[in-house]
Design goal:
By secondary structure, the chain is α+β, with helices and mostly antiparallel strands. Helices cover 23% and strands 20% of the residues. It contains five helices and seven strands.
């Protein structure tokens, strides 16, 4: 079975999840440091407001993060959902009938890798509607695999201390447990 988007689905561009736990808040789309400036430039050209926060940092000492390995582009809703580049207003549709991406040709590697979340063994996101209906696939994921491997390569570091950035973003009912700022990963 070959992977393809389910008709009229844009769920991966809308719904954000808490990761690695609710206290860290909802995560945004992973943006590598070399992608950050490009995405910011595209947002200005498209007159699209974006919010980019740190996501993963590393350091030699436990005092604070000294190098950012990855950023995250947050969703436009208060609860962190909906990619700012998802066109939900024009009435246009993507080839599979969902909302179109305004920057599809320039989308981040994380978007190119989806729904692939692990390369060895191959694991596809169980929240993806296609994956729910058809299970894992091992065909037609070459470009997704290439994007995921590039991300993994950029995450390699010699620095021993890993930090995660808590976004403080989530559902209203979860506001009491949300944290914000750098948190040492133990």
């Amino acid at each position: 079975m070959k992977f393809k988007c389910i008709e009229e689905c844009s769920q991966c561009c809308i719904e954000r999840e808490y990761y690695p736990s609710k206290e860290f808040g909802k995560i945004g789309v992973l943006i590598l440091p070399e992608e950050k400036e490009k995405i910011e430039k595209i947002s200005k050209l498209n007159q699209t407001h974006i919010k980019i926060l740190p996501r993963i940092g590393v350091s030699v000492k436990k005092s604070s993060s000294t190098k950012i390995l990855a950023y995250q582009m947050m969703g436009i809703e208060k609860n962190g959902n909906t990619c700012p580049f998802l066109d939900t207003t024009s009435g246009d549709k993507s080839p599979h009938g969902g909302f179109p991406c305004k920057i599809y040709e320039d989308r981040p590697l994380a978007c190119r890798a989806y729904p692939l979340i692990e390369s060895e063994p191959i694991i596809i996101d169980e929240k993806c509607k296609f994956c729910k209906e058809h299970g894992n696939t091992n065909q037609n994921i070459d470009s997704e695999m290439e994007a995921l491997l590039k991300i993994k390569e950029k995450m390699n570091t010699d620095m021993p201390i890993i930090w995660r950035f808590a976004t403080g973003v989530g559902e209203d009912k979860d506001l009491a447990v949300l944290k914000s700022g750098w948190i040492l990963e133990e």
